[in-house]
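Progress report, Aim 2. The chain analyzed during this reporting quarter is listed below.
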Amino acid sequence: MSHGTSEPASAASQDLSARVEQVINLIRPAVQSDGGDVEFVEITADGVVRIRLHGACVGCPSSNVTLQMGIERNLRAHIPEITRVEAVA
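Predicted structure tokens for the chain:
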């Protein structure tokens, strides 16, 4: 039984998306405690995670720090395939 290399790319990307969702779900309570929320939008072929910030995060001066130091740092620590995290409108 071989795992990983023989599976289709779509299954691999679904697995990666599921792993991204899991990490975001761990971060979400902290973001929600400040009146905001974070939504996973997509992951690109080159490992860029796109998220959408909601609620109090929209327009908040600290949202960029939350994005880079909180969300991106956590995602990259747990999922080495992630190259960057960016917010989309």
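The CA atoms of residues 52 and 88 lie 5 Å apart. Residues 9-87 form a domain with the GMP Synthetase; Chain A, domain 3 fold (CATH 3.30.300.130). These observations will guide the mutagenesis work planned for the next reporting period.
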